[in-house]
Specification:
- The protein is α+β, with helices and mostly antiparallel strands and about 550 residues long.
- Helix content is about 20%, strand content about 40%.
- The protein has six domains: about 1-80, Nucleic acid-binding proteins (OB fold (Dihydrolipoamide Acetyltransferase, E2P)); about 85-170, Nucleic acid-binding proteins (OB fold (Dihydrolipoamide Acetyltransferase, E2P), Beta Barrel); about 190-255, Beta Barrel (OB fold (Dihydrolipoamide Acetyltransferase, E2P)); about 275-345, OB fold (Dihydrolipoamide Acetyltransferase, E2P) (Beta Barrel); about 350-430, Nucleic acid-binding proteins (OB fold (Dihydrolipoamide Acetyltransferase, E2P)); about 440-525, Nucleic acid-binding proteins (OB fold (Dihydrolipoamide Acetyltransferase, E2P), Beta Barrel).
- It has ten helices and 30 strands.
- It starts with a helix and ends with a helix.
- The strands form six sheets. It has a five-stranded mixed beta barrel.
- The radius of gyration is 40 Å and the shape is flat.
- Keywords: Ribonucleoprotein, Ribosomal protein.
Amino acid sequence: MDNFEQLLSESMANFQHRPSEIIEAEVIFVDRHKIIVDVGLHAEGTISRNEFIEPPVVGDKIKVVVEALDDGDGQLKITHREVMVREQSEHIPEMVANNEIVDAKVVSLANAGLNVQVGYLSGFIPRKLVDVVPVSDPEQFVNQMVRVKVLSHDSTHDNLVVSRKAAILDERGGIVPALDRELSVGDTVEGKVINLKRYGAFIDIGGVSPLLHVSDLNWDINQAKPEDFAIGDRLNVIVKHKDSDTNRYFLSVKHLDMTPWEDAKKQLEVGSVHQAKVIKVEGNGDIRVSVGGVSGLVKSQDVSWTRMTTSSINAEFRRGAEIEVKVIGFDDTFGFEDVLVSRKDCINNPWTEISQKFKEGDIIEASVKSVGDKMIFISVFEDVDAIVPIREISWSNSKGAILGIHVGDKVKAKLTSIDVEDRRVVASMKQTEENPLYSIKRGTKVTGEVTSIAKNGDVQIKCFQGHREQMGVILSRNAVPSRAYKSDEVYEIGQKIDGTVISVLANGLISLNVSNKWEKSASQNNALKEAMKAAKAEA
């Protein structure tokens, strides 16, 4: 140990630390949080991963500054960022003088513009310098890389003032003249691509920058590609729609030539069957497709003969899938043209057979398709499912019974309603067996257990008759021998009860009489009350 400490002491003695001196270090370790470097003579230091725009790899040589020989944990305190900031700062005057355009990353919104990172330096784009036209939604730029021109540098705070507008003007050759009139639907105007997204392009048409959606680039959505455009491209667009409330324009390129749509209507006759490619499933369950080179729409009610949720439609009809559809009409609304098609008309309709195969009252064995809070669905025939409402699961405890049912379980059910026109089947599981209440006659002996005592004196009982459970009640007037007693003085939770059925109440509870069992409990409680009175009198 003494030899090691001596060697370490000698190494540190030979290591000359001069404040602010830039030295070269070798990267010897890298992980998600830190970079460890060797600055020579077996002296190591740790640098936070956050100091690097791109992390180095083991073996790289990087420039660092040793700030202190001991960071408090016995290691060198070193920095890489200070070196890079210093080197970048030295080039700022040259960048300003030469009107250089550089890359910047927008990191956050500010009250008056955007905060950016230019290499290792912080910067700011004033809102009026974000674009060549007013920007209504500056948040669209956050986390985006943009090209900016360096205007000035605050060396005290290492802060740059930069302009995206100036960079655009330099790289794209000027701005689009401001609109001199309000546009109407059908008007054609020249615009310039100022931003590209996967869902379309933002077009500067002079003071406003509406979205040209990808679906409006080409009549054949499969051929619509925003990447075919480049920022700065100039093109003619047509106003396909205008929101009168927000004065917002919706643009289109494909509507400059209506020929593909008119040709499609001639080729896609109503009643004809075609192959279509799924483009997307809308939020309401409608399926957007490409058919005959134009946009088609399968409305949710035309997807299947059976009801399907949006999530199940999403799961079954993936983007790019080929489906067979039948043309049922056209939507000629300018700007929103669609071939209306049906998928269900191309598949077997199970409802034409179900009324022949089944009738109300039939008892079937079926698989559970799904379990909800208030109902379950069981498979009846092909894609036809039946609803079993929770109240139809059990005669006695449906809420408890539904918890024991799982997808895939085999259950027996009685078909109680078959509505072919409304495409709805309702079934009952409990009606496959006799209502146990019907077998309970007045005077029947039952055993039970007290489960609760109501404030009004009614005593709730869980009754057992053979293997069946049924909830019962001892009404307050039958629960105690006289008004001198309260139910909670005679009964306790968990107490075993032998009773006789008086009647079956409208709510399905069995009304019980246990009058022949009062005496023992009543006399015991009466003796206890007398003892307590005597004790109080003596006190």
